[in-house]
Sequence to fold (313 residues):
Amino acid sequence: MGAALALGERGRGRTAPNPCVGCVVVRDGRVVGRGWTQPGGRPHAEAMALDQAGDAVRGATAYVTLEPCAQPGRGPACADRLVEGGVARVVIAAGDPFPTVNGAGIARLRAAGIPTTTGIRADEAEASMRGFLTRQRLGRPAVTLKLATSTDGQIALANGESRWITGAHARAHTHLERSRHDAILVGRSTLVADNPRLDVRLPGLEDRAPRRIVLTRRAAPAGWRAIGEPAAIAGLEGVNDLMVEGGAATAAAFLAADLVDRLLLYRAPILLGAGTAALGDIGLAALADAHGRWRLTDSRMLGSDRLDAYVRG
Fold:
């Protein structure tokens, strides 16, 4: 399952509106097929792995990170393909809440007499496919908020200068994160002041630039989509993972609306004093309300800067 999870990650940021699924087919202790969801969502991971396995799929065990689909789409349902291929066993990490699947894929396999195990490394699978699962359960993308600050929590000098607070290693990591998201959002003030490119400037990943969105009630410039308020993210069709890189007002708006699922905090070893704080008012009425909201999942040095990653507590 670990190999299947790693394969699924290859498609992160490119499979929307479908999830980034991985699949490994094993027979007699040897991997005979590997697959991951391709750009645009097709072919599915299982289809890739089964095609690679060929006749060796008969009597094999298939490991897949998400419940196989149960209804034909642009091709046969993956559950049907597993049955017709003659697999001896299927191991699934997480169930799929999509209405036409949601247990039907597992039921199809079991009805065919195929032993099917579920819940293997489910937490890791759900983290990998957080965007898709959030969209199914909450009707909106999973939101990652990125903040790059000085040690004292400032994102710019008092005169507005902000390039660059963090160093090259932290900026490269930001570009990697962009490549793993379907869309990226800034506020109108950031767009006007910085005219950011919001692309991916890493060798080999230049084509992974996410679509660009601006939080504004006005018309968006060419190449951008405008939304009027954070709640409108529910209408971002086909977006699984949204990255927010706006200024203090935009970041505060998403936090105040309780729409942030993951926080990336890059901190440089500098002090700016009186400048622009990273956040505006996020609507907290009492200090107690601030505790327990976030759980640290990663902490590392990126050159001289520190990255702390959090998810909802």
Observations:
- The chain has a mean pLDDT of 92.
- DSSP finds nine helices and 15 strands in the chain.
- Residues 213 and 225 are 5 Å apart (CA to CA).
- The radius of gyration is 22 Å.
